[in-house]
Amino acid sequence: MDRMLPHQWPTTTNQQVSVAQEFIGLADITRFLTRYVATIIACLGIALLVAWFYNSTSDPVFTASAQILIEPKLPQHLQEGGEVNLSLDTAQVESQIAVMQSEKIAAMVIDQLKLVEDPNFNRPHAPILPERFRKLKTVLVEAFGVQKSARVTSLLDYFGFGMPEPTASLTDYQKFRRTMATFRDSLDIRRVGVSYAIDISFTSVDPEGASNIANATADAFVREQIETKADGAREGGAWLEKRLQQLRAQMNAAMAKAQEFRSRHDYSVVNEAKSEEGNSIEGVNAEPTLEELEVTAETYQKMYESFLQAYTNSVSQQSYPVADARVITAATAPLFPSAPRPKLVLAFAAIAGTIFGIGVSLVRQMLDWTIRSPRHIRDNLGIECIGELPLTSRRMGSSHVDEVQRRPHSRYSQCLRKARTEISLAETNHQVKFLGLTAVSNASPKSSVASNLATLYSMSGLKTLVIDADVRRSATTMRLLGRSIAYDKQSQDPIRLNIVRAPGRPFDMLPSSVVDGGNLLIPRNMEEFLSELTAFDLANCELAAYDVVIVDLPTLASGADELIVGSVLDGVVIVAEWGKTHVETLRELVRTLQASRTHVLGALLANARAMTSIHHKA
Fold first, then answer.
1. Disulfide: which of 95, 233, 388, 415 matches 608 by Cβ 3.0-4.6 Å?
2. Cβ(423)–Cβ(462) under 8 Å?
3. Residue 66 confidence class, pLDDT cut points 50, 70, 90
């Protein structure tokens, strides 16, 4: 018996699967896209729907641009000199841009064009969500021609697609601040490269209004510069005028003192007395000389003349102020809207929807702990996947149990033949003769696999027996025999006499009722029964010995104690269902079988929707 039923327990080294590092290839990407194509298409459709909603409910806006050039001016006292290189640095240009974006310029344009009272200007370019839905209502009723349907109109009004609610009246200050916010949000001022040119762009729902505001902004900046220079010149002129009056008084006083001194003294006599005394007299306050008085008078006169020239220039600047900027390109009304761009929005939505769909699919894959590929089985369970079985044309009913017999050249039949070859190449000391099939749940296709696998062995010329040991479910018996055969425990006849031929199939069958009645789920009884099957030969003229015995074992859901009978078999194959069998449950089944010293040949992945090529170990 030991020679016929060796139960070599695999060592730890044999159970550890050496998995080479696998890289993501084209086949993996194809399987991923095939599996989650519905999710990706759904996300793409939602993104395109949002893009259509945006395009349908957004008002077209137009952008007009004007350009000004900032020119540094030479100071008046340097204009008549030699060649002077005067340039603006980045900080100065950015300062001019800040002036253009200031509320002072905005207020000048708002007052000039009376934008506070312009309802078209104060309408938001990007409508809020309720307003978009109301626009969508208009689009839908026009598209389907239901303008006159009171029922449809009332239904849309019920969901908030009706007339907008009246807004509360605003104060003048609130209106001005609202207009100011709209103006600054629509204004865009940028430097053109590294030049001194500044581009002033304005976006509005009215193309003419956009060009008018852009031009008005440029003009306001130039005007502000002129006014600032005029104000500065005016303030400087006032200060110079006051200073001139002081210098004139001081100059006149100095000249009067010199004239008075000249009239009271003989200049030559005074000069001789001064030279005779020299520096002999100390500590005495000397009276100013005529030369000193004349020098003081001349100094005040030169200062007066200098300030008089500056005052003249200041008055000239007040009369003819010149700005340091000029308009080089006036804005014109644009012919085409700058936004929205339907094609660009749809293209962006398509790309974003696809990327989002792939991201959702990746998250789903990371959160999905069901078995979906042979790699999952090898990496998570440490056992080999001996094959993959695709979905058949008929998944339910008795027709599925004879798929191999009815369609011997189908994809399912070919994959099952490969799995049979993998079983024959399993790491055992001899050919697998007693094969068990089990699963984690009663809803698995284990019975169908057992029936089709038995058909393959029989078609190969091997005498095959199927034992339905899943006594709680009896799915194989019901599908193949349609009834249960009663077994009398008191009978002295051998159990083997209850073996019947499966109707229309090339293999024999032992019903679940006989297994239950004969207590074959007890390992010792099953071992004795299998010994009888192998020892019986043609000399008895009753029953020939079986070449292959397939035992349809109970599932993990039926109880771990009923799986102990698998220890008397040459090997057990676990039937896992693609996308339904959880990896943790399958791991529990593997641990249960290994704890009962059952030799696990591998797992068979049934109902696979994404097939992969399986490479077994040499």
1. 388
2. no
3. very high
3-state secondary structure of 388: strand
- pTM score of the predicted model: 0.56
425 secondary structure, DSSP code: T
pLDDT score of 297: 78
Token output for 367: 């959160």
Helices (H), 196-341: 207-264, 267-277, 290-319
What stretches of 483-582 show up as alpha helix (H) in DSSP?
Answer: 512-517, 523-535
Look at the alpha carbons of 285, 286, 292, 293 in this order and tell me if their dihedral is positive or negative: positive
CA-closest candidate to residue 585, choices 427, 415, 416, 377: 377
The whole-number pLDDT of residue 558 equals 86
Q: φ and ψ at 434, to 5 degrees?
A: -110, 105
Asked whether the predicted pLDDT for residue 68 surpasses 50, the reply is: yes
Q: What is the pLDDT of residue 551?
A: 95
Binning pLDDT at 50, 70 and 90, where does residue 617 land?
very low
What is the average pLDDT across 264-272?
A: 57
pLDDT value at 424 more than 60: yes
β-strands 62-70, 325-329 pairing? antiparallel
Question: How many angstroms separate the CA atoms of 187 and 202, rounded?
Answer: 5
Amino acid present at 382: G
Residue type, 538: L
Residue pair 195/66 in contact (Cβ under 8 Å)? The answer is no
User: Can you tell me the distance from the alpha carbon of 340 to that of 361, in angstroms, rounded to the nearest whole number?
Assistant: 31
Distance in angstroms (rounded) separating the CA atoms of residues 457 and 29: 36
Q: Using CB atoms within 10 Å of the CB of residue 528, give its burial: 0 to 12 exposed, 13 to 18 middle, 19+ buried.
A: middle
Three-state DSSP string of 593-605: HHHCCCCEEEEEE
The residue with greater pLDDT, 134 or 201, is 201
Residue at token pair 């000029």: 326
Give me the percent of the chain exceeding a pLDDT of 90: 34
Residue 570 to residue 601: CA distance in whole angstroms: 9
d(C-alpha 261, C-alpha 253), whole Å: 12
Percentage with pLDDT > 70 across the chain? 75
Q: Are 64 and 331 in contact (CB under 8 A)?
A: yes
DSSP string, 453-487: HHHHHHHTT--EEEEE--TTT-HHHHHHTSS----
Average pLDDT over residues 420-428: 83
What is the C-alpha separation between 598 and 428, in angstroms, rounded? 12
User: End-to-end CA distance of the chain, in Å?
Assistant: 30
What are the start-end ranges of the H helices in 265-410? 267-277, 290-319, 342-367, 374-381, 403-406
Range in 60-64, 197-201, 464-468, 490-494 with the lowest mean pLDDT: 490-494
**Token couple for 210:** 């956009």
Q: The domain 388-608: what is its CATH number? A: 3.40.50.300
- Residues 6 or more apart in contact with residue 236 via CB below 8 angstroms: 310, 314
Task: State whether the Cα torsion 425-427-430-432 is positive or negative.
Answer: negative
User: What's the Cα-to-Cα distance from 73 to each of 78, 323, 365, 564, rounded to whole Å?
Assistant: 10, 9, 68, 101
Query: pLDDT tens-digit profile of 110-126?
Result: 999 999 988 888 876 65
CA 37 – CA 25 distance, rounded (Å): 18
Omega before residue 340 within 30° of 0, cis: yes
Mean pLDDT for all residues in the chain: 79
